[in-house]
Amino acid sequence: MWSRPVAIPTRLPRRPTPSSLRLPKIALAPSSTRLYANKACTDYLTPTHLDDNVPLDVQHKLKRHSAVTLNTYARPHFILARGKGCKLYDTHDREFLDFSGGIAVNALGHADDGVAKILQDQARKLVHNSNLWHNEWSGELAYLVVQKTKELGGMGYPAGQADQNGQADEGGLKVFFTNSGTESNEGALKFVRKYGKYAAALRNAHGAEKGVAAPTDEKVEIVSFRDGFHGRSMGALSATWQDKYQAPFAPLVPGFVPATLNDIDGINQAVTEKTCGVIVEPIQGEGGILEANEDFLRALRKRCDEVGALLVYDEIQCGLGRTGSFWAHGSMPVDCHPDIVTMAKPLANGIPIGAILMKDKVADVIKIGDHGTTFGGQPLQTRVAHHVVSRLSAPSFLSHVSTVGTYLSSRLAALPTLFPRLVAGPPRGRGLILGLPFKRDEYVQRIVKLMRERGVLVLSCGKMTVRFVPSLTVSEEEAEKCVDVLESALLTLDRESEGI
Ligand SMILES: Cc1ncc(COP(=O)(O)O)c(C=O)c1O
Predict the structure, then answer these.
(1) Measured in angstroms, how far is the CA atom of residue 10 from the centroid of ligand 1?
(2) Distance separating alpha carbons of residues 121 and 91, to the nearest angstrom
(3) I need a labelling partner for 298 at 20 to 30 A (CA). Which of 7, 37, 63, 216 fits?
(4) CATH number of the domain encompassing residue 219
(5) Measured from the CB, is residue 285 less than 6 Å from ligand 1?
(6) Residue 52 CA to ligand 1 centre (angstroms)
(7) What pLDDT band is residue 234 in, cutting at 50, 70 and 90?
């Protein structure tokens, strides 16, 4: 059970703050019930979930498992057994408040009743039947994703013009289902390559019948951005310009070109007539919650059009409601929109699935047999995803994400002033994909641990950043508790690091 620490009656004596640094009262989201002064919360100074306090049975199990498990993750020593909403419980029933959301996956929270019901029902009907036959749900999910894109904005369809954007079956967009984010990007990279071969040929042949003109190898380069993350297969990894991921596995796939996010001046040099595609996250997640700005995306779109390259947005972490819009790019003007969007993580609330959403002009160059998958688009995961997309595309759901995100962000925004030695600046990101920058990486690692030892799970990302990607159903009270615990952890670290 969650055990609230013994109340500490007084707030810690604070070092005197120079009047120039003193904070005005922090602005609150209107529905909040708590008033904040310019003081950090001290309710959680005492750890309740110490990492080193590992029960014997857990020690034995972990030892047994580690003897046979490839060790690619540094995990704390507890075993999670169940969850509900934003709460997780370990095998000893200790409660954790989960602000990691399965790394931005569990959009509807853990053990959602609607998802559970559908899983059970579909498991009794049909789980898998291969892609050689139609099933009831794959096409319905594709229809829903296209319909919601047209209704809510994205992929060239402006937000707020649902009545003019048309219906899904009027054409314009197509979907291919995969099993993960990596596979969605891998597929998108293949589609981009094939388009490049034929697009060049088609342009040369002045409108020759689609696919008839001979392919060329002149247009095969793919541009992607430093600090981006697109996955760990050889193709997706080749687009992931981070040394720690790439170096151990070099040589990678040829033809990938690095560029710098938000460097408009660098675009023309990176994106040339040889470029078949550009892949970018509208908000770099693993890289540190770094947003691509609107002007940059507009310039990228323009340059892709000039050279006949496809623009791919990897919305695997930031898409499907996380920013408070259906697509992260959906709230931007259409001259910032892509030709392809890749998605995965929240699509079926944790049941593995991914998808590639593309314009018809991309779909037109992909022929039967060009690409395939055993598991992609099967009835179990597509039916769950249909349920998830129906719920997270509801305007009330999206506005909840924006409201709680704004509240969380406003609380985090006070921390650079409260903890100037530790916190490097205001939070980055939108909606419920937020990152708080720190002054040192060891502070980030320590804060993640101090919060975990107080029963709150958060993640690190990129350079010196703590990441907040909870379930999208998270309440304002849960956000409040998360920041209260963070403040207590910061106070603890501030005292520890006095001598650092
Ligand atoms: C933006 C982005 N792209 C791709 C991936 C890879 O997805 P997956 O782990 O499902 O293969 C991730 C995973 O973190 C991601 O955040």
Answers:
(1) 44
(2) 28
(3) 216
(4) 3.40.640.10
(5) yes
(6) 31
(7) very high
State whether the beta carbon of 235 lies less than 6 angstroms from ligand 1.
no
Quick check: is 243 in a domain?
Answer: yes
Confidence check: pLDDT of 463 > 60:
yes
Residue-wise pLDDT for 367-381, tens only, equals 999 999 999 999 999
| Of the candidates 427, 457, 431, 100, the residue with the CA atom closest to the CA atom of residue 288 | 427
Residue owning tokens 């687009």: 239
Specify if 253 maps to a domain: yes
Q: Is residue 61 part of a domain?
A: no
- Residue at 428 is within a domain: no
Alpha-carbon 449 to chain mean position: 22
Structurally, the chain folds into a number of domains equal to: 1
Cα 367 off chain centre by:
30
| pLDDT, mean over the chain | 91
Residue nearest to atom 16 of ligand 1 (CA): 317
pLDDT single digits (tens) 319-357 = 999 999 999 999 999 999 999 999 999 999 999 999 999
Q: Is 181 near ligand 1, meaning CB less than 6 Å away?
A: yes
Determine whether the shortest distance from the Cβ of 182 to ligand 1 is under 6 A: yes
Q: Determine the structural domain holding residue 384 and report its residue range.
A: 119-396
